[in-house]
């Protein structure tokens, strides 16, 4: 196996070498046009390293996690090699979960938007066979599926892989953890020998090495090697925030943090423009820079940032290379970077000339592993920051209002206006405080001066309809008033839906791992990863947080699901009754209900 370690650039090196462009990688015009449409500026390290060997026909093993851009790394070369006249599937991507399968299929759709007549079909457990059968009958060039469902179709004779030319194992370690090893090996064995195989995995356990040795043909191994360090005068924090709430989170940070100038990093050119526009419409002075902006315009914008005419720059990695502006007190990683080196380079835009700097990273729940790899590679733990609350924002607005008055009192024009106001007071006999308030009305939007408190989450419809039935069926809810301590309900950070605790009959004794629980429940119950809350594995059983209003059919399907051969008998958790009222110590099941207060979503 030849090994290819993608070298990184040391922390503060502003001679940051220009990497290859997508065109340099030999990508054809149709795919280049699609990439331009989605707005990627340059290949991520895993793309730069993987696309050329895949295009040359080699098998590849890529050590890469979600968030590194690995989907495009395998999708682009496959799309370039497909013949749309061939109606049987030419490419199969195996993914551990239905959620990932859909995501990968969507990514193929995006990257093939300029290839007419190309069909991509996701197939996964939980979806009716009808849709999948008609998709297969119509002819799919690329099939993206979970291993179990792919095997089902193979056994039924509804999926013909005799013409397969590309096979991708995505998140291979996850697939094995979820018990798909046999299925994966069977697919590797029962498909044409001359197919090209790409295997992506976040880790390289022995079982994956074995698969790669046995089924791949002298693969090129690609690892992104970290060689990073961060500057100690930069304070690094992170905020947990779902993708949908990032803009709200950013505005709160902008209101409350005391910053001089800020650079906000996003992934695409479009995102720079869109975010800068949204910030301007919220009253912040913000401009975008990206690789498409002409050099003189870029210089003008940076000049404004230097002089203080502009405070917020929204940038891509490429556009911010080598940027050296002392005023930048804050760097916000609005979109988490693909690799640690980009992170180090991004945050190196603050803390210049011996000053101190602040770096803030937005992390969505499924990006936590990227945070971990940043911490590992920089050997620097990031501190979690709680988002400013509505009260924090309002307190800042009041204090800034006061500061404005104090500052304006020293203006040369005060004498002029004082005379006019004295005249008004005498003429209208109006108290001075009313006159001052009237003047403030002219300068501020009183209707929106205070941020509104967050609305309570919508009540569950089911509860309103049939409370009694719910009580019987639904898992113990934290706000029950029948003796248990009052607790705030738990909410999914990603989807905002209410979660409840369910008990399953497999535990440490059965050697289950969280991945196996998520895999089995997601596949059999048709759930997404974002539907899961905390999982706690106990000696004989486990507690899993899932949406509180799972439909009956899903509950039924999950009661019959097996993990490691054991029927899981999923049921709402009633908690240990003897201890519910016990005030002497913490509830034994507390571990299963973590961070409930913090999980409450903000509006
Ligand atoms: P993945 O690791 O494939 O799940 O990709 C993570 C995210 O990065 C997705 O939102 C992609 O759209 C985005 N992405 C992939 N490649 C690039 C690139 N070269 N430049 C910017 N964003 C990218």
From TrEMBL:
<dbReference type="InterPro" id="IPR034415">
    <property type="entry name" value="CsdA_RRM"/>
</dbReference>
<dbReference type="InterPro" id="IPR028618">
    <property type="entry name" value="DEAD_helicase_DeaD"/>
</dbReference>
<feature type="domain" description="DEAD-box RNA helicase Q">
    <location>
        <begin position="20"/>
        <end position="48"/>
    </location>
</feature>
<dbReference type="InterPro" id="IPR000629">
    <property type="entry name" value="RNA-helicase_DEAD-box_CS"/>
</dbReference>
<dbReference type="GO" id="GO:0004386">
    <property type="term" value="F:helicase activity"/>
</dbReference>
<dbReference type="InterPro" id="IPR027417">
    <property type="entry name" value="P-loop_NTPase"/>
</dbReference>
<feature type="region of interest" description="Disordered">
    <location>
        <begin position="568"/>
        <end position="603"/>
    </location>
</feature>
<comment type="similarity">
    <text>Belongs to the DEAD box helicase family. DeaD/CsdA subfamily.</text>
</comment>
<protein>
    <recommendedName>
        <fullName>ATP-dependent RNA helicase DeaD</fullName>
        <ecNumber>3.6.4.13</ecNumber>
    </recommendedName>
</protein>
<dbReference type="InterPro" id="IPR014014">
    <property type="entry name" value="RNA_helicase_DEAD_Q_motif"/>
</dbReference>
<feature type="domain" description="Helicase ATP-binding">
    <location>
        <begin position="51"/>
        <end position="222"/>
    </location>
</feature>
<keyword id="KW-0694">RNA-binding</keyword>
<keyword id="KW-0547">Nucleotide-binding</keyword>
<feature type="region of interest" description="Disordered">
    <location>
        <begin position="448"/>
        <end position="496"/>
    </location>
</feature>
<dbReference type="InterPro" id="IPR001650">
    <property type="entry name" value="Helicase_C-like"/>
</dbReference>
<dbReference type="InterPro" id="IPR057325">
    <property type="entry name" value="DeaD_dimer"/>
</dbReference>
<dbReference type="Pfam" id="PF25399">
    <property type="entry name" value="DeaD_dimer"/>
</dbReference>
<dbReference type="InterPro" id="IPR050547">
    <property type="entry name" value="DEAD_box_RNA_helicases"/>
</dbReference>
<feature type="short sequence motif" description="Q motif">
    <location>
        <begin position="20"/>
        <end position="48"/>
    </location>
</feature>
<feature type="domain" description="Helicase C-terminal">
    <location>
        <begin position="233"/>
        <end position="394"/>
    </location>
</feature>
<feature type="region of interest" description="Disordered">
    <location>
        <begin position="1"/>
        <end position="22"/>
    </location>
</feature>
<dbReference type="InterPro" id="IPR005580">
    <property type="entry name" value="DbpA/CsdA_RNA-bd_dom"/>
</dbReference>
<dbReference type="InterPro" id="IPR011545">
    <property type="entry name" value="DEAD/DEAH_box_helicase_dom"/>
</dbReference>
<dbReference type="InterPro" id="IPR012677">
    <property type="entry name" value="Nucleotide-bd_a/b_plait_sf"/>
</dbReference>
<feature type="compositionally biased region" description="Basic and acidic residues">
    <location>
        <begin position="586"/>
        <end position="595"/>
    </location>
</feature>
<dbReference type="InterPro" id="IPR014001">
    <property type="entry name" value="Helicase_ATP-bd"/>
</dbReference>
<comment type="function">
    <text>DEAD-box RNA helicase involved in various cellular processes at low temperature, including ribosome biogenesis, mRNA degradation and translation initiation.</text>
</comment>
<dbReference type="Pfam" id="PF00271">
    <property type="entry name" value="Helicase_C"/>
</dbReference>
<dbReference type="InterPro" id="IPR044742">
    <property type="entry name" value="DEAD/DEAH_RhlB"/>
</dbReference>
<keyword id="KW-0067">ATP-binding</keyword>
<keyword id="KW-0346">Stress response</keyword>
<keyword id="KW-0347">Helicase</keyword>
<dbReference type="Pfam" id="PF00270">
    <property type="entry name" value="DEAD"/>
</dbReference>
<keyword id="KW-0963">Cytoplasm</keyword>
<dbReference type="Pfam" id="PF03880">
    <property type="entry name" value="DbpA"/>
</dbReference>
<feature type="compositionally biased region" description="Basic and acidic residues">
    <location>
        <begin position="457"/>
        <end position="485"/>
    </location>
</feature>
<keyword id="KW-0378">Hydrolase</keyword>
């Amino acid at each position: 196996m030849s090994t290819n370690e993608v070298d990184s650039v040391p922390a503060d090196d502003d001679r940051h070498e220009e990497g290859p462009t997508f065109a340099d990688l030999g990508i054809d015009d149709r795919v280049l046009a699609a990439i331009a449409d989605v707005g990627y500026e340059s290949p991520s390290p895993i793309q730069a390293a993987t696309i050329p060997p895949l295009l040359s026909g080699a098998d590849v093993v890529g050590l890469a996690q979600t968030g590194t851009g690995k989907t495009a790394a395998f999708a682009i070369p496959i799309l370039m090699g497909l013949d749309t006249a061939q109606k049987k599937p030419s490419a199969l991507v195996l993914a551990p979960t239905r959620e990932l399968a859909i995501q990968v299929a969507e990514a193929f759709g995006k990257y093939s938007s300029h290839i007419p007549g190309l069909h991509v079909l996701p197939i996964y457990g939980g979806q009716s066979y009808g849709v999948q059968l008609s998709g297969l009958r119509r002819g799919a060039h690329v099939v993206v599926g979970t291993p179990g469902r792919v095997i089902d179709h193979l056994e039924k004779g509804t999926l013909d892989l005799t013409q397969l030319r590309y096979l991708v194992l995505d998140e291979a370690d996850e697939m094995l953890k979820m018990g798909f090893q046999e299925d994966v090996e069977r697919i590797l064995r029962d498909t044409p020998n001359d197919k090209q195989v790409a295997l992506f995995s976040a880790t390289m356990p022995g079982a994956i090495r074995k698969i790669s040795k046995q089924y791949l043909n002298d693969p090129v191994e690609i690892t992104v090697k970290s060689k990073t360090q961060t500057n100690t005068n930069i304070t690094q924090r992170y905020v947990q925030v779902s993708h949908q709430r990032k803009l709200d989170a950013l505005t709160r940070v902008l209101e409350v943090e005391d910053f001089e100038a800020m650079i906000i990093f996003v992934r695409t050119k479009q995102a720079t423009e869109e975010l800068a526009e949204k910030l301007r419409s919220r009253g912040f002075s913000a401009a975008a820079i990206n690789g498409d902006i002409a050099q003189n315009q870029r210089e003008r914008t940076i000049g404004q940032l230097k002089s203080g005419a502009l405070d917020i720059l929204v940038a891509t990695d490429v556009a911010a290379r080598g940027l050296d502006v002392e005023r930048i007190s804050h760097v916000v990683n609005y979109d988490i970077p693909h690799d640690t080196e980009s992170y180090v380079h991004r945050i190196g835009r603050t803390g210049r000339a011996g000053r101190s700097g602040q770096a803030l990273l937005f992390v969505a729940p499924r990006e936590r592993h990227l945070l971990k790899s940043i911490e590992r590679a920089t050997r620097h733990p990031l501190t979690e920051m709680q988002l400013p609350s509505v009260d924090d924002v309002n307190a800042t607005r009041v204090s800034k209002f006061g500061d404005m008055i104090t500052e304006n009192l020293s203006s040369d024009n005060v004498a002029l206006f004082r005379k006019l106001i004295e005249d008004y007071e005498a003429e209208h006999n109006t108290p001075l405080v009313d006159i001052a308030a009237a003047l403030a009305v002219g300068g501020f939007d009183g209707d929106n001066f205070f941020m509104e408190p967050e609305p309570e989450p919508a009540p569950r419809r089911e509860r309103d309809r049939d409370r009694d039935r719910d009580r019987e069926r639904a898992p113990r809810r934290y706000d029950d008033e029948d003796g248990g301590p009052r607790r705030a309900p738990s909410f999914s950070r990603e989807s905002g839906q209410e979660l409840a605790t369910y008990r399953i009959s497999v535990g440490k004794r059965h050697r289950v791992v969280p991945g196996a629980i998520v895999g089995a429940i997601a596949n059999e119950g048709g759930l997404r990863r974002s539907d899961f809350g905390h999982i706690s594995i106990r000696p004989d059983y486990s507690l899993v947080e899932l949406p509180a209003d799972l439909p009956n059919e899903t509950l039924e399907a999950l009661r019959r699901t097996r993990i490691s051969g054991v029927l899981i008998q999923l049921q709402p958790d009633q908690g240990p009754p003897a201890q519910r009222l016990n005030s002497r110590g913490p509830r034994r099941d507390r571990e299963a209900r973590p961070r409930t207060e913090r999980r409450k979503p903000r509006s």
